[in-house]
Design a protein that fits this description.
The protein is an all-alpha fold. It contains four helices and no strands. The chain has a domain of about 35 residues. Keywords: Membrane, Transmembrane, Transmembrane helix.
Length: about 120
């Protein structure tokens, strides 16, 4: 995507990270419901449960919306930038066109100037 080939270590972390975060989430939810302690503020316990389930439901809802959009092949205009997005002034637009994602990433990772400026 940005024109740089990542190492095997980075690829392994890219694959393992969602699984490890999922396991951590499952462990924390289990620990949250099995840990019996006297609560000083009972309303705070309700707030914790609300936030926990709100986040879980929001993530699952987003996944299904995204899945339906990908499977159906529809691209909603709300997910695309507007046609006139970008700088208004011509000098800023020219400056923006000079910087390509590939060159900027390559310069960042290798530490050398490749953008020609």
């Amino acid at each position: 995507m940005i024109g740089i080939r990542f190492s095997a270590y980075s690829n392994a972390l890219y694959i393992l990270n969602p699984f490890l975060l999922g396991l951590l989430l499952i462990y924390n939810v289990y620990n949250f419901y099995t840990h019996k302690v006297e609560v000083k503020f009972p309303w705070m316990r309700s707030l914790e449960i609300f936030f926990l389930w709100f986040i879980l439901v929001a993530v699952v809802f987003y996944f299904f919306v995204y899945l339906v959009l990908v499977v159906s092949g529809k691209n909603l205009p709300v997910f695309k930038p507007a046609a006139d997005w970008g700088p208004r002034y011509s000098t800023l637009a020219k400056s923006r066109r000079m910087f390509k994602a590939y060159n900027m990433a390559k310069e960042y990772f290798t530490g050398r100037n490749v953008s020609g400026i």
